[in-house]
Amino acid sequence: MALSTSTLSGTDAPLYEEIIDPAAKGESLSANLDALLQRAGASLDDIKRVMVTVGPGSFSGLRTGVAFCQGLCFSGKRNLYGVTTLQALECFAQAKEGDRIATVIRARNGYWYLRLDSTEKFIETAEVIQALDTKKVMHIVADEAAMADAELNAEFEKIGASITPDTGKPLNQWAPLFNTVKPTLIQEANYIQPSYFEKLKA
Question: Is 196 contained in some domain?
């Protein structure tokens, strides 16, 4: 969860805070938001934009997050921005304009989610390697599984791209998405992308 208070304080130093609770099932969202607002000296009325990831990821977790954010934006006082997990992680590359970025995270054994040139795919290892071979990828955002995979790691080294882990980065790096994504008040339920969808058969 991240909260920007730059418009409240009148400074260029917004407050961002990430809260991770693996044991929570969504029941702590409201309490965490209240605590963040209190620390920022703000109220719910001061929030004008809300961003939520719509997957891939845990389907139950995605539904909980989207539903909570829909509730925050239902009154129309706030704009709701839905972005994919890969789209958000792509921001961690901190690349220059025009640099080609690929995001690779594990879907399941032998399968990966790949974002490249604004297109997202659920593909096998060989297909990821082929896609990276045919493009001039300069930066790769990868999860721990992708960085540990021998075949992918060999490909990363072969193309000479810089590698950025998908964790441990400040959430304020996602802020530019507010300028490139259109807000949608209510996301459709079928817009959520669970992590376990099957590869389509030709």
Answer: no
pLDDT of residue 7: 43
According to DSSP, residue 60 is labeled H
pLDDT in tens, 43-63: 999 998 999 998 998 888 888
Q: Torsion-angle region of residue 57: left (phi > 0), alpha (psi -120 to 50) or beta? A: left
Query: What global pTM score does this model have?
Result: 0.84
In the chain, what's the furthest Cα-to-Cα distance?
55
Residues contacting residue 134 through CB under 8 Å, at least 6 positions apart: none
What's the structural domain count of the chain?
2
Domain extent, residue 21, equals: 6-84+170-191
Distance between CA 202 and CA 140 in Å, rounded? Answer: 28
Cβ–Cβ under 8 Å, residues 113 and 131: no
Cβ atoms of 90 and 137 within 8 Å: the answer is no
28: in domain: yes
Give a yes or no: residue 54 inside a domain: yes
* Structural contact between residues 114 and 104, judged by C-beta atoms closer than 8 angstroms: yes
- β-partners of residue 111 are 108, 124
